[in-house]
Amino acid sequence: MAEQMIETLHSGADPEPIRFLDDEGNYAPTATAAAYADELAAVGVDDFKQWYRDMVGTRAFDTECTHLQRQGQLALWVPSVGQEGCQVGLARASEPQDHIFPAYREHAVAKIRGVDFVNLAAQFRGLTHGGWDVTDPANGNFHLYTLVLGAQTQHATGYALAQLLDAKRAAGDASLEAGEAATPTGDATMVFYGDGTSSQGDANEAMIFAASYQTPEVFVVQNNRWAISVPVARQSRTPLYRRALGFGIRAVQIDGNDPLAAYAVGRRFLREARTGGGPGYIEALTYRIGAHTTSDDPTRYRAAGELEEWQQRDPIARLEAHLRSLGVDDAFFAEVAEAADREAKRVRDAILALPAPDADSMFANVYSEEHPRIEEQREWLDRYEASFMEETA
Amino acid sequence: MSANQTSTVTTLTERATLPMARAINEGLRAAMAADDRVLLMGEDIGPLGGVFRVTDKLQADFGSARVLDTPLAEAGIIGSAIGLAMRGYRPVIEIQFDGFIFPGFNQIVTQLAKLTSRHDGRVPMPVVIRVPYGGHIGAVEHHQESPEAYFAHTPGLRVVAPSTPNDAYWMIQQAIQSNDPVLFFEPKAKYWMKGEVDPAGAPGELHRSRIARVGTDCTVVGHGAMVTTLLQAAEVAQNEGTSLEIVDLRSLSPIDFGPLLDSVRKTGRLVVAQEAQGNASLGSEIAAHVAEHAFYSLQAPVLRVSGYDVPFPPARLEGIYLPDADRVLEAVDRTMHY
User: Fold this and answer.
1) Are residues A377 and A256 in the same domain?
2) What is the per-residue pLDDT across A129-141, written as a single tens digit (0 to 9) for each?
3) Quick one: closest CA in A to B60, which residue?
4) In a domain, B122, yes or no
5) Do B168 and B26 share a structural domain?
6) Number of structural domains found in chain B
7) Which of A181, A189, A286, B266 has an alpha carbon within 20 to 30 A of A265's alpha carbon?
8) Is the pLDDT reported for residue B172 higher than 50?
9) Do A209 and B179 lie within an 8 Å CB cutoff?
C-alpha cells in the first residue's frame, strides 16, 4: 500500500544515476551520462592522475588522523573514507572564484581548494573553533566547517545571493522581483551536506530561498546512507534529489564513487549557476566506509555484508583500474602511495607541533568592536592568573 | 545601485516631531542613503511597508534589490543575512513580531553570535535584527512578548532598545554602523508615540544609558516602553512627595552600569522594572550587579517589578500581567519603607 502510494507520488521512474566508470573502473557511461560527456572533453590521463593523487592523499590523512585520535592526540576525528570520489570530482570542477561551504567531512575539497590538512585537524585537537583564514586567497574561498547540521546551507544561499546582488549592481539593475529569471554572475557557491541533514529545516529553507531568488548555487548532498546510526530510509521515502525538484531546482543523482561523474555534472551545474541558469542540486550516492566519527561503532547498526559490498565500489580502486586501463603503470601508484605517506607524516608532525591557544584568545574576537564586559573579564583573568605567579615567587 | 538613484532619496534634514515608527523609517532611509551595502530583508517589508509600516516607501526609494521581501521563513532570512554579511553587505532584518524570532533562534545563537570569534575576527557580522516587541497592543498569542534576555545572555550579540523617537532614529543608524550583530528591540506600543527628532547629531553612543528624569529618593530603571510608565510613576510619586530618578537603559548588552550605579549611590534605593518574566531576567542581572558594586550605598534590597513567570496571557489579562505605574509605585513604597 505504502509502496503504491509512493509510486503514484513519483512522476515516473528514477533515471539511472549518472556515471562514467562502473564499479570495476571500466569506462561505461550510463545513458544518463551522455548529456554530460562533453564536460570531460578536455580532461585527460594527467587530470585523472591528479584526482587519484588527491584521493589517496586524503585517505592517508584520514588514516593518520584516526591514529592520532586513538593515541589521544585528537579529541575526535570525522573520516571521509569512501566519499573521496565525489569530493575530488566536485572540487576539481569548481573555479577559483567560486565559494565553497562545507559541512565537516569535506577534507578532499578543502585540500584541493588550498587549505592545509594541518589546519583541518586543529579544531579536532581542541585548539580553535575555526582553523584557517577564509579571507586568505590561498585557502580558495573554502569556508569554515559547520557543526550545527544544515546551518551552512543558508549561509551559502546568502553568499550566493550576495554574488547575485553584486552582479546586478555591476549591471546597474536595482530590482529583484519575485519570479524573475536568474542573472549571470561569473561566480557561484557550492554547499555540501548529507542525507541526515537533508531533514533539517535549514536545508529546506535554503532551497526555498535559492529557488526564489535564483541564486548561483549548487547544493551537493553526499548521500552516504547513514546519519550516524540512522539509515537514509528513516530520513526520506523519496530519493533526495526529488525533494529539490519539488522546490523547482534542477536536480540529478550521480554515482558518488565515480569522480568523472562528479566532475562532469559539477562542472555543468556550476557553469549554469554562473551564467544565469539558477541553482542546481546534486545527490551523490556514496557510502561512509568508516565510522561517523572515532566515537562511533558502526558494528552496532550496520550489517557486515553491506560494508563489504561498498568496499568493492571504493572510488580509489575504481579510478586506479581506469588509470591502469589507460596504461598507467605500477611506478606511478607506488610513487603516489609514498608521497601520500610522506605528506601524512608531515601533517602528523605539524599537528603535534601546533601551538596551544592562550587564554586571552577566548576574549579576543567575541566582538569586532570593544565590549566592556569582555574587557573587564579579560583583565580579571589576567589579575587572577598573575596572583598565582606572586604566590610562587 | 548608482549614486544618482540614491541621491534622489530625501532624508530627514530638519528637526521634526515624528512618531517612533516614522523615526525608525527615517533612520533606515538615512543609513541606506549613506551606505549602499545596507540591505533590508523581511516579510512584507516591500510594497506593504511592513505590518507596522516601519519600512514604508523604502522599497520605492531604493529598489527591490535593496529592500528584499523574503520567503516566509525566519531561519532562512537570518541564515541568508549571515551569508550576505560574509560578502560585505550589511543586512537589516525585520522580524514581524517578537514571538516569531524563535524559528531563527538557532541561526542567531549558534551561528551569527559565534562567527566573528570562529573567524578570529577576520569576518565581521554587521547584521541588525529589528524586533517589534512587548505588550500593550491587545494582540494574539506570540505578538506581545519580551524575549530580550535570551539574546543579552548570548556572547557575541549586542542588544539595544530605544524608548523615544529621537533615540530610535539615531540608534538604528548606530546599530547599522556597528560591525557586530545587533538585536534592535522596538517597543511596538510606542510606535505611534510622537517626539522631536533632531537629525543634527546623535544624543550619545549606542551603548550608553541615560537619565530620563533626575530625582533624589529612589532610582527606577527600565527600557523601551517601560520608560514611559516609569516617567508616569515619577509624576505620581512627585505629587506624593517622593522624588524618583529614572534611568533609561537603552542598551541591554552591554549594559552601561556607570550612570545607574552613580544614581543608586545617590538615592540608596533601586527598583528594576521590565515587561519580561522576572525569572533569570535582565532585572536579575541588574539587581546582582548593583548589589555587588553599590552594596554599601543601598538602604534597601533591590526590588524587581516584572511580568509574572507565566506565558504572556491572553490580551484581556495583559493589564494585570504588565507592570504599570501602580505596580512600580507599590515597589517604590516597599523600598522607601524598608
Assistant:
1) no
2) 999 999 999 999 9
3) A175
4) yes
5) yes
6) 2
7) A181
8) yes
9) no
Residue A331: give the domain boundaries: 16-357
In angstroms, the separation between the Cα of residue B125 and the nearest Cα of chain A is: 8
A140: left (phi over 0), alpha (psi -120 to 50) or beta: left
Question: Which one of A154, A160, A369 has the shortest CB-CB distance to B75?
Answer: A154
**Domains identified in chain A, total number:** 2
Query: Which residue in chain B has the smallest CA separation from A375?
Result: B254
Answer whether A187's CB lies under 8 Å from A163's CB: yes
Residue among B119, B156, B180 minimizing CB distance to A144: B119
Q: What is the pLDDT of residues B39-60, one digit of tens each?
A: 999 999 999 999 999 999 999 9
Interface test with A, best of B120, B205, B206 (most A CBs within 10 A): B120
Q: What is the pLDDT of residues A66-107, one digit of tens each?
A: 999 999 999 999 999 999 999 999 999 999 999 999 999 999
Judge whether A2 lies within some domain: no
pLDDT computed for residue A304 by the predictor: 84
Task: List chain A residues with CB under 8 Å of B155.
Answer: 366, 374
Same domain, B38 and B105: yes
Query: What pLDDT, on the 0 to 100 scale, is given for residue A361?
Result: 94
Residue B234 and residue B193 in one domain = no
Q: Helix (H, G, I), strand (E, B), or coil: what is residue B111?
A: helix
Report the CATH number at residue A206.
Answer: 3.40.50.970
B4 has a pLDDT exceeding 80: no
pLDDT of B150 over the 80 cut: yes
Taking the Cβ of residue B106 and every Cβ of chain A, the question of whether any pair is shorter than 8 Å is answered with yes
Q: Are residues A116 and A193 in the same domain?
A: yes
What residues have CB less than 8 Å from A154, skipping those under 6 apart? A202, A205, A206, A209, B75, B76, B78, B79, B80, B82, B83, B107
B283 and B189 belong to one structural domain: no
User: Of A58, A52, A193, nearest to A117 (Cα)?
Assistant: A58
